[in-house]
Amino acid sequence: MDKFQAMEARQVAEVELRDQLDLASLPRHIAIIMDGNGRWAAQRGLPRIAGHKEGIRALQDVLEIGHELQIPYITLYAFSQENWKRPQSEIRLLMLLLQQYLTEERQRFQERGVRFLPIGRLDQLPSSVRSLVLEVAEETRHLTRRTLAVALSYGGRAEIVDAARKIAIEVQMGSLTPDQIDESLFEQYLSTWGLPDPDLLIRTSGEARISNFLPWQIAYTELYFTKTLWPDFRRCEALLALLDYQKRERRFGRISQTVSP
Ligand code: IPE
Ligand code: IPE
Ligand code: MG
């Protein structure tokens, strides 16, 4: 099969997958751990950064699907707190890619009504990256059609600890009493406040772990793990994940809807 035939076959497969989708029961919020860029590059004898670059193409494909299907919330794990332990050279290139991506996409966010919401310890980012991130967040703050949350220097446990600290300060100041602290109050102190919990979490690259991503928010999220490496996670793979999600029955602790009481 030549390149053109392969492309055509993929398009046919995509149309077939799209036809099976139930547009009435799509997830409202999809969280994605975009993993496997380094391995994708290594398999080709390329430097890791080549995998990160190709990963941006995969991201564009997936966000395009999100746009077409009007998924209101997408949250991406772009850089974890633990990722600071990587070699400086890789960190520098990742930051550069983030800057390039935001510079290229900021206009599209406006056109499509996408709010860009960075979450994580943004003060740890290099100052030029931080100011661009905050600028794009500010200029899209009023947009409400869709939200693209991007976790940068993010750690889920740190987020919970930060929330606890803010609450403790309020209790100390007397503006809050301990008995007022419940789950819905606690959530207001998380960086994802205002977003519904993710319905679907996708992790690529074959690892079946959460790596400190949204531990509070995913308590009842459907988890989808695939061996596909992130740069290869394209339109068909995204549709497969959505179809898999639609096969599941979300019970939230109740008994099956199909089983009579
Ligand atoms: C995910 O790909 C991207 C980031 C963590 C920024 P990796 O860089 O972790 O790729 P692998 O897991 O080493 O293949
Ligand atoms: C998770 O991937 C973080 C991102 C995708 C940004 P990692 O590659 O850092 O996670 P581990 O080290 O495999 O748990
Ligand atoms: Mg990885």
Note the run of SSEs as H and E: HEHHEHEHEHHEEH
Low confidence ranges: none
Q: Find the count of extended strands (DSSP E, 2+ residues).
A: 6
- Under the CATH scheme, the architecture of the domain at 25-155 and 197-246 is 3-Layer(aba) Sandwich
Structural class assignment: alpha/beta
Bound molecules: 3-methylbut-3-enyl trihydrogen diphosphate, magnesium ion
Strand content: 5-15%
> What is the name of the CATH class of the domain at 25-155 and 197-246?
Alpha Beta
Describe this structure in words.
With about 260 residues, the protein is of the alpha/beta class. The protein has a domain at about 25-155 and about 195-245: 3-Layer(aba) Sandwich (Undecaprenyl pyrophosphate synthetase). About 45% of the residues lie in helices and about 15% in strands. The chain has 8 helices and 6 strands; from the N terminus they run H-E-H-H-E-H-E-H-E-H-H-E-E-H. The chain has helices spanning about 5-20, 35-45, 50-70, 90-110, 125-140, 155-175, 185, 235-245, and strands spanning about 30-35, 75-80, 115-120, 145-155, 200-205, 220-225. A 6-stranded parallel beta sheet has the order 3-4-2-1-5-6, sandwiched between helices. Helix 1 (about 5-20) packs parallel to helix 8. About 30% of the residues are buried. Bound molecules: 3-methylbut-3-enyl trihydrogen diphosphate (2 copies) and magnesium ion. One 3-methylbut-3-enyl trihydrogen diphosphate binds near residues 33, 78, 79, 82 and 83.
